[in-house]
Amino acid sequence: MERIRIYLNYVSWVIFRLLRRKVRNYTLYRDALKGKKGLEIGGPSSLFKKGNIIPVYPIIDSLDGFGFPMPVKWGGTTLKGGETFIYSNSKKPGHQFIGDSVNLGEVRSNSYDFILAAHVLEHIANPFRALKDWRRVLKDGGALLLAIPNKDLMFDHKRPVTSLDHLIDDFSKNIGEDDLSHLPEILELTDISLDSYVPSAEFLKERGECNYEHRNLHHHVFDANLMVEVITYFRMQILSVDTAPPHHIVILARK
To answer: 30, 88, 141, 222: which has the fewest C-beta neighbours closer than 10 Å?
Structure first.
């Protein structure tokens, strides 16, 4: 039954895209970002392009990027700093920062109107450390737009949702991005038949053991309720929580 439900959800996604549908509350995203300057963590993402479910690239003023240099061996691409962040063929490239998303370092505080991050947070071992720094670079009143995977509709469907207390504890212990404490659970409960990038359990183990190089593991498992708790913890106002096929949970919040 689980596989049938996931299959039907992918069928609904195909229909959703053919009809060029947007997320239910897209007007809120548009109004929060239109004509403004932003920073995207881990982008560019196809989700934000014209014709996709959250097409904000066409309506923003400018966008810089902050990315981790993942090796080509694990599916990465070469990153070059400077004015090289190409997110739209019709707009001037933004500045590409290179580094670890838990520490934006050289990015000035209160310097951006919005931050985008699509399917990034689950790959971070210490997401509260990252969110604290992302909040730092947002202007007062700035918007945070996150997309995370709906675990029930993908290869994480057997894994339990992480608790807020667990995330707080990882933050208080200053857990590093080299942490592999979740690897045993990942190896046991990941449904690799639903992950097109993982051909075997052996590959998942090999890749997982060198995760610091490429950051592919889903350290934590989120759902909409947990994300509401997380955003509230960081004293941000939730403007919208949406779902969209095939497996997206989308959150818009304001600092």
So the answer is: 141
Q: What is the pLDDT of residue 74?
A: 53
Domains and CATH numbers, the chain: 2-254 (3.40.50.150)
Q: Using alpha carbons, select from 6, 56, 68 the residue that is nearest to residue 32.
A: 56
pLDDT the model gives residue 197 = 87
* Low pLDDT (below 50) residues in the chain: 13, 15-19
CA Rg, the chain, in Å? 18
In one-letter notation, the amino acid at residue 2 is E
For 127, the token pair is 């997401």
User: Would you state the pLDDT for residue 4?
Assistant: 58
Assigned token pair, 233: 């913890």
DSSP secondary structure, 39-79, as one string: EEES---GGGSTTSSS--GGG-SEEEEEE----GGGT----
DSSP-assigned letters across all residues of 112-176: EEEEEEES-GGG-SSHHHHHHHHHHHEEEEEEEEEEEE-GGGSTTTTSPPPPHHHHHHHHHTT--
Closest alpha carbon to 32 in 229, 240, 244, 196:
240
Residue 78 has a pLDDT of 72
Structure confidence at residue 19 (pLDDT) = 46
Non-local (6+) Cβ contacts of 135 within 8 A are 144, 234, 236, 255
Handedness of CA 202, 203, 205, 209 (dihedral sign): positive
Q: How far apart are CA 198 and CA 118, in angstroms?
A: 21
* Per-residue pLDDT at 247: 86
